[in-house]
Amino acid sequence: MTGTIFEKIWDMHRIATIDETTDLVLIDRVLLHERTGGVALESLAAAGRPVRAPNQAFVTMDHVVDTRPGRTDATIMPTGTAFITATRDAAIAAGLTLFDLGDPDQGIVHVISPEQAIVLPGVTLVCPDSHTCTQGAMGALAWGIGSTAAEHALATSTLRVKRPKTMRIRIDGQLVQGVTAKDLALHLLSLFGSSGGSGYIVEYAGTAVEALDLEARMTLCNMATEFAAFSAIIAPDDKVFDYLKGRAYAPKGADWDVAIASWRLLRSDADAAFDAEYAIDASDIAPMVTWGISPQQAVALGKPVPGFESVASRDQRDLYDRALTYMDIEAGMPLIGLPIDAAFIGSCTNSRLSDLRRAAAILTGRKVAAGVNAICVPGSTGVRLRAEAEGLHRIFLDAGFEWRESGCSMCFFAGGESFGHRQRVISSTNRNFESRQGPGTRSHLASPETVAASAIAGAIADPRELA
Ligand SMILES: CC(C)[C@H](C(=O)O)[C@@H](O)C(=O)O
Ligand code: SF4
């Protein structure tokens, strides 16, 4: 086998070539959540079609669920409960594995899949959710689809897919102290723009990527959809194998050894050709924060709001102007020191145990500034329980954060959980679109460290000054 890692996985899963651009591909796993998955399951049931491989389809509750302690099926937005109950009923009727509310394995779909070893190196995995690219960090070909395609994948374990072009982004050298995978992702977005990856499967490689721990790699891959990539992938290495070993759905016994031997072949060959290649020097990257209404509108922390000239290669004038007005900021004004109303640590980007540990290190012995609504939502119930076992929740609570049940929560105004109108939020999430965290909210994306430091300062702050 020669070629890129993508080509190797694709070729192993190609069933037929449909035309010059499109193949029929075997789908190993289908993941569903209640916001889009229930619709697919119900439609399938209405058509009288069974799920072809029910033991390879997994369902969780994450998007609209209440994350306040003591939750039930009730949601803040009255329509939310119907999504939960319909998805539950359909998942049970179809005989799928369901991580329901109250289950210790429940959580955000892209967080629990690696935790449970549902995603494995070399598998094809789809989910009706754009951040499925997160799971490419495990060396899988994982991508987001629509509900209709999910229905097709459930019924047939196949999908017709337009073969993406290949891009490699090498990041070599060492990240500067205090620079995280989130900063790296925002840096790439500021370079490539929100459509820079369109049509590509992006392989992240290079010494700086190899040096990232697995959860940081998930953060990096998570934001590939923000530059419109088909997905992202990183060649699996010992960090991936060590992480997976012994987890619920990982191969066991002799199967494990066979699996590892095949996973070790999943890397791009030295002479593999990519349709596009870029090289980034890790030492050029600084902690980042977004100032606008698109994730590409990000600058190094400490830099002022950029003037239009410096972003004109990516931002259209109307997007730029709209961003300044919506965010209530002006070109040239410093972002550090901009007062915030709220701070949010959560989402499939940055709510894993390592994220919470790093934020807690900053919060230890400190207090959230008066008037700041600070909330931490662990990415899964498993993350919450492990965090509680090591006492992290006490650090968050003592600092003045709310400590919640797991779910998407204020990443996305779907179940009704939101910050207030016009409130400025520093957030560890991946999208700063208008009204993303509730009607009229103004979101600044950053690392969990920057969110924690800003919560303490009551204004956007540089975590390196507190470290
Ligand atoms: C609701 C879902 C379809 C959506 C997505 O596809 O990403 C959501 O998870 C998001 O982050 O905006
Ligand atoms: S945490 Fe946010 S980005 Fe991730 S799946 Fe949920 S809503 Fe989408």
Relative strand content = 15-25%
List how many beta strands DSSP finds: 19
Structural class, by secondary structure, is: alpha/beta
Bulk shape: globular
Spatial extent as radius of gyration: 21 Å
Helix proportion range:
25-40%
Oligomer: single chain
Helical stretch tally? 16
Would you give an account of this structure?
The protein is α/β, with parallel strands linked by helices. Among the domains are: 24-162 and 249-258, 2-Layer Sandwich (Aconitase, domain 3); 295-462, 2-Layer Sandwich (Aconitase, domain 3). The protein has 16 helices and 19 strands. The chain has helices spanning 5-13, 37-46, 80-94, 109-116, 147-156, 181-192, 207-211, 214-222, 238-244, 254-263, 308-311, 317-327, 353-363, 381-389, 392-399, 448-457, and strands at 14-17, 22-26, 29-33, 57-60, 97-99, 124-127, 141-144, 158-162, 165-172, 200-205, 231-233, 276-281, 288-290, 298-300, 342-345, 373-376, 402-403, 424-427, 442-445. The strands form five sheets. The chain has a five-stranded parallel β-sheet with strand order 5-4-3-6-7, covered by helices on one side. Strands 17-16-15-18-19 form a five-stranded parallel β-sheet, with helices on one face. The longest helix is centred in the first third of the chain and has 15 residues, at 80-94. Bound molecules: 3-isopropylmalic acid and iron/sulfur cluster (SF4). 3-isopropylmalic acid is lined by residues 35-36, 63, 129-131, 144, 412. 3-isopropylmalic acid (IPM) binds at residues 35-36, 63, 129-131, 144, 412.
